[in-house]
Amino acid sequence: MVTSVSALTSAGQAASYYEADDYYAEGGFAPSEWFGEAAASLGLSGEVDRGQFAELLEGRVAGQQLGTTRDGKVEHRPGWDITFSAPKSVSIMAEVAGDKRLVAAHAAAVKAALAHVEQHMAATRVREGGEVRREATGNLAIATFRHATSRAQDPQLHTHAVILNATQDKDGNWRSLEPRAFYQLQKEIGAIYRQELAHGAAQLGYRIDAGKDAMFEIAGVPETVIEALSQRTAAIDARLAERGTSREEASAAEKQIAALDTREAKSHADHKSLRAEWRAKAEATGFGEVAQAHVIAEAEERAKAGELAASPEILAARAVAWAAAKLSERQAVFPASTLAREAGDHAFGRLSHSAISDAIAQAGERGALVPRAFLDRRGAEFAGFTTPEAIATEQAMLRLEAAGRGVAAPLASPLAAARTVERAARQSARAGFAWTDDQKRATSALLTSRDRVAAVQGYAGMAKTKTVLATYAREAAKSGLAVTALAPTASAATVLGEALGLRGDTVARHLVSPEAKGLGKGAVWIVDEASMLSARDMAALMASADKAGARLVLVGDVRQLGSVGAGAAFAQL
Question: Is the whole-model pTM more than 0.90?
Answer without folding.
Answer: no
